[in-house]
Task: inverse folding
């Protein structure tokens, strides 16, 4: 069974390597895998079959989201991200479907990586970058929208204004608002500097979001995307396990993923992070180096490793987990690292906006305050991660 | 004995009320009180005599510092505050003597207030504003120097530059450097924005410090100052206790001072302050209101009440205290509140500098980052105060 997926009609290993130039005459079979991919009862120690089960379920979910995404169509670039918690993105069902697509793509990609020893190596190594491309392309639009929301919220918080405008005038105009460089929309109690900083960020991030939206639409219509969808469709019916995988124990691979995580966490400056107000995150706040803070890198890496660890646990223990306390804490640790990433990128966006030529000093001042505020959010997120990680270490048997 | 001090040659109650216009034909008798003011053994429950003893000792210390101050002479406006911990100020012995003068003046003034029921009311209420004027005038120069040091240190920290310049070029020029508005001294690894922000702050705060220095010199030569010194010289020999004070218990007054402190602390948002990274201190970071943050007021008030409480404990228990653990914690709580005040004022100085007309956007950006950094120092200081206060509450029997 392991190699059957390599047969025609479409060759999933060929798709990713030939990439965008590849043409598909037919759309992937969306409905068949949904019926075939029904979760089955799972018994005994987690072995190869549990892995196949998980991959089939995620592939099925991917195809379902893809169908929803197509049915919802393109609602145009969204005026504002749906939610301010960083969970929403895009508009309505279209954005939700994109989120769900990414969710499955990440899980498939991560699982292929963690359990690569039990899978057809060439196939899974070829598929991962394609899934990463897809997931990254779909993520960008949402990320810009969420970043803008985060920064506008912060500007209002820093202005002592609790009222958050439900609709700012600039946003509705999309990329076109960049022509109104000096227009400052009515922003309640903001200073001129804060209002102008908000308008500048809105202009820059809305433009980036609109471009990301177009890129995502273009990607979804591309042959490269069809090839990925094809591969996932095949995965929904047949998982390319190695011959030995069916009876192999999954736990060593999952343990290795956990070890990579704990090694990476051990290298983090957790003692410093555990001292509130250590002022580390802003150490390069005025550094001449315009590159993103290099100190953030190891934390971003841990975020990815934590995700792989969580997915490996999903493979082993199913959707209801093994130990709810551990799962909740892993989730909390992951959320802290998401907040870390979001604040890090928002701080960089504020710093980048401050380098716009010919801005007013008041605008630059507000962007400086905003940058520092977000770098403190970075530090706060590290503190939160460290707290949940210590609980984790205590809570894990 | 209580009223004897009102006799000629100089009338201490007249001095403060007639103020600067009052002329003294002779300098206050500096040497006599030093010999008469030797501390005596103190026995039994703290009563009026302990209060008199404390006031005499502080008055003696005041006169000793005054003599040192005069002997050291005026070294000119100092190029840089002596210490970066906020403890130094002015230059060498001159600055040290000013610090010691203020230290005694604060203690005398605070003690007159706390134990006013046991002292000649009219006299002590007239003397306190004069001591406050003296103390405030002497404090200003040091405060500007320490503020500049704090801000330049922060600029270097925020630039990831561990090296602190021992002597910046602008500082040595004193107020004259304000003519070089566009000159940016060599500042190692600072960005242009951080370097210009540093130069601007140095110019503004050096000018303020130089003016404060002149004002302090003028104050020390004034008849108003001579009148205060006269009053203190009399206090060193005779304390105006009320007839009932000699046998009165000091503890009710000291307890009332403590109660004023604990009431004020109870009104502080300590629960919020105890949650690290609550982001409260920067809530008005971009507020249109240019006034200092009103949220800082109650903390500044607690700083003053804590000082009064500490001085009352000094009166009751002498220089070696009653419970070293409590004294150490009160000191730590007081230091946290000093840091709160210093950071609050430094943040305001950065915000004020950003309102200088025609500054470059990069300068304004750096000042924004600096402002936010100092507001986070404010928040960190509140967290530290809350920690030492909780320990206090647990540690106090």
Result:
């Amino acid at each position: 069974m392991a190699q059957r997926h390599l047969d025609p009609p479409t060759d999933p290993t060929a798709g990713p390597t030939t990439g965008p130039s590849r043409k598909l005459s037919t759309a992937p079979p969306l409905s068949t895998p949904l019926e075939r991919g029904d979760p089955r009862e799972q018994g005994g120690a987690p072995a190869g079959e549990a892995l196949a089960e998980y991959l089939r379920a995620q592939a099925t979910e991917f195809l379902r989201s893809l169908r929803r995404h197509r049915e919802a169509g393109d609602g145009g670039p969204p005026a504002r991200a749906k939610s301010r918690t960083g969970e929403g993105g895009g508009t309505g069902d279209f954005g939700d479907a994109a989120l769900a697509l990414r969710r499955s793509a990440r899980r498939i990609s991560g699982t292929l990586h963690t359990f690569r020893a039990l899978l057809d190596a060439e196939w899974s190594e070829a598929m991962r970058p394609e899934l990463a491309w897809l997931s990254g392309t779909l993520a960008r639009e949402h990320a810009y929208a969420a970043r803008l929301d985060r920064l506008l919220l912060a500007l209002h918080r820093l202005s002592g204004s609790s009222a958050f405008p439900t609709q700012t005038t600039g946003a509705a105009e999309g990329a076109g608002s960049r022509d109104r460089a000096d227009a400052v929309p009515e922003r309640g109690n903001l200073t001129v500097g804060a209002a102008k900083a908000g308008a500048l960020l809105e202009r820059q991030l809305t433009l980036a979001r609109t471009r990301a939206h177009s890129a995502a639409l273009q990607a979804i219509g591309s042959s490269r995307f069809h090839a990925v969808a094809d591969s996932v469709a095949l995965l929904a019916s047949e998982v390319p396990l190695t011959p030995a995988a069916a009876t192999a124990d999954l736990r060593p691979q999952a343990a290795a993923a956990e070890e990579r995580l704990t090694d990476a966490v051990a290298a983090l400056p957790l003692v410093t992070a555990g001292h509130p107000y250590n002022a580390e995150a802003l150490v390069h706040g005025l550094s001449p180096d315009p590159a993103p803070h290099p100190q953030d890198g190891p934390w971003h890496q841990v975020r990815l490793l934590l995700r792989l660890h969580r997915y490996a646990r999903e493979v082993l223990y199913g959707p209801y987990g093994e130990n709810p306390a551990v799962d909740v804490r892993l989730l909390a640790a992951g959320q802290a690292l998401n907040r870390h990433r979001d604040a890090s990128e928002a701080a960089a966006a504020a710093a980048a906006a401050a380098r716009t030529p010919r801005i007013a000093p008041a605008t630059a001042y507000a962007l400086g305050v905003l940058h520092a505020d977000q770098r403190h959010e970075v530090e706060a997120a590290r503190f939160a991660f460290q707290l949940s990680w210590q609980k984790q270490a205590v809570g894990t048997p």
User: Anything to note?
Assistant: Residues 1-43, 79-90, 163-186 of chain B have pLDDT under 50 and may be disordered. Residues 121-158 of chain B form the longest helix (38 residues). The two ends of chain B are 38 Å apart (CA to CA). The interface with chain A takes residues 155, 157-160, 189-191, 193-194, 276-277, 279, 282-288, 354, 359-373, 376-377, 379-380, 383 of chain B (CB under 8 Å).
